[in-house]
Amino acid sequence: MNVTLAVKQYISKMIENSGPGMKVLLMDKETTSIVSVVYTQSEILQKEVYLFERIDSQNRDSMKHLKAICFLRPTKENVEHLIQELRRPKYSVYFIYFSNVISKSEIKALAEADEQEVVAEVQEFYGDFIAVNPHLFSLNLTGVARGRSWEPALLQRTTQGLTSVLLALKKCPMIRYQLSSDMARRLGESVKQIITKEYELFDFRKTEVPPLLLILDRSDDAITPLLNQWTYQAMVHELLGLNNNRIDLSRVPGISKDLKEVVLSAENDEFYANNLYLNFGEIGTNIKNLMEDFQKKKPKEQQKLESISDMKAFVDNYPQFKKMSGTVSKHVTVVGELSRLVSERHLMEVSEVEQELACQNDHSSASQSVRRLLQNPRLSELDAVRLVMLYALRYEKHSSSILPALMDELNKKGVSERHRRVSTPPGHQLSQGELFHGGRNISLGVENVYTQHAPLLQETLDQLIKGRLKDSQFPYLGPSSLRDRPQDITVFIIGGATYEEALAVYNLNRTMPGVRIVLGGTTIHNTKRQCCQLFRTDRPSYAGRCLIPQFLI
């Protein structure tokens, strides 16, 4: 149950099938992202892939000495691009791989276009998703809903992505869905239709306990995406934004040209892999240790290269030293910027109040804390809106609610009326008790006041693993149901997952022997993306357009 490994194996197999010789990798916009998150360019270069091109590029030169490996989504546009390519081939031979199921009629059209017989192979390799972490995947889709219903085209794309994950992991699952969400039911039925239609593809070796697909809706837990995070990967996404493992640091004061965009990948960065789920305090200590280790290995300026053996040792060690130098520079810069933002935006104080709103049930204390922060002129608009959203979700119907006064405070900060309406986001359609996990205190009893909150997903999975998840709330599609404790579980959240939920899944995988869980979502949320989703409108003239306030851009 490792989505990263599954995609890497597909790509390795493509390259291996093409045999020895120089190659070009032809991709589309989406498959470029799929490949880039699991392989670095230097890694693929070592496999004799010397050129990377987009299938829709109009300026490609003819290079008959190269073999072409095509990895494409099976869209009408890509098939048409391939037809044009095969009619006037630029490369000696073509190995074509689609990331999902392609129709027989499209295969026929490609065969008819291949008059020069340059196609050596056509296969389906089911890597139609972004493998973020080994146990976390995303479809990079936003705006999947129009009100409480699917955007039709995005239901189809989500179905394709989710069935691709199941095929990559070789799972033919039983399906459960969140009864309160019509979107979850429709997605479950759509996936079930594909499994029935393509039954031969899903004819995997039967296991004693069938795998399970659990489909959830983000609106069931509107709280988790709004909270500040304090583990490394989650903090980076919340404060800087992770996009296919890339961070844009161009707005960082005094940033050097080489560090305006950096890549954080656990597959190729040992420090990042080891610190992914550690908290901010531990990261600071580990950065200090990394720096000290780097200083020890740094060549002394006065070191003399007096012999051939001295020169050979220097050359042998230089690539490793250069790589370590890049790692140190990157993480010192990233952690330094995180630290600056935490200080500048008073995030420790903000986070403490967020946790109080999410985990405690003291209206008097919470209202005083929120009002005090809103009156701080240095509080950012994003954090002000975030706090009011959390207060509204928790206390709008409280007899002593001060929500109108808090809205006035937002007005004084210059937040527009449209953006002040976030005080009643989707998910607020649920009762207060449902939003806050049945009204119970959801603190885990931890001493750290910044990490009291546990996402609803953690409780849902705990109940599922123990066989206590109610069929009345999470029914099965079809007549069958699991009698035994589930072992292989794929969870998919319509509307997006979060890194806090990914951490919960990681910990469950570590502590529950025999249970393997993979989490996915239409996107990976941070507060900005959640607000973007909440600002979408149902009006057809604005369908799919994100009405984001300036402070979220």
From TrEMBL:
Pfam families: Sec1. Keywords: Membrane, Protein transport, Transport. It comes from the Eukaryota. It is found in: Endomembrane system. GO terms for biological process: protein transport; vesicle-mediated transport. One of its GO terms (cellular component) is endomembrane system. Its main location: membrane. It is a peripheral membrane protein. PANTHER family: VESICLE PROTEIN SORTING-ASSOCIATED. Belongs to the STXBP/unc-18/SEC1 family. This is Vacuolar protein sorting-associated protein 45. It comes from Esox lucius (Northern pike). The gene is VPS45.
